[in-house]
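Lab notebook page, bench 4
Experiment: in silico fold of construct C2
Operator: M.H.
Input chain length: 191 residues
Purpose: comparison with the prior construct
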Amino acid sequence: LLSTGLQAANAEDPCICSSPTRGRADHTPGRRHIPTTAHSGSRLGQPNSLIYMRLWIAEKPSVGKDIAAALGESVRGDGFITVGSDVISWCIGHLLEQAPPEAYDPAYSEWALDYLPIVPERWQMNPCGATKSQLNTLGLLLKQADSVVHCGDAAREGQMIVDEVLEHFRYKGDVHRLWLREMNTPAIRAA
């Protein structure tokens, strides 16, 4: 189950794993806000200086809802669910797509065999139009999160979907990984 070199965060949560490559030097638990509603251009929540916020990011809404149900009584927001100091949100498949060739060089706007292959130094990703509001919600939540639990599916694509969001927003906090064998409440609670 933990074959990618990740180490278990603690003995009580064997399926929640810490990535040894992520960490934030300025990490200050207890100085975050727990979201209750989402409004464009405003803060996502009400200040509470005593609460540590853990953000769970699932690959799809159905998994996010299952995780929230397993964690306990929840309050639904716009693109997220709160359960105590935990906030569960989700991607809706891919929230980002590769930038078109002309984003790297205007000359690439016209196709020519001489331009191939196009291999940029750093790949650019753009928000997908239909899911941009969910990407914005995740960005606001990531700014407030003390830690993240990566709940993407265990396959490569599930890993990549959430990783792209974390990279897009340059999240530097602690990231844990949740891998589930089954998607039912008893299995989620056991994990």
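Observations: The longest strand covers residues 13-18. Residues 68 and 88 are 6 Å apart (CA to CA).
Next step: discuss at group meeting.
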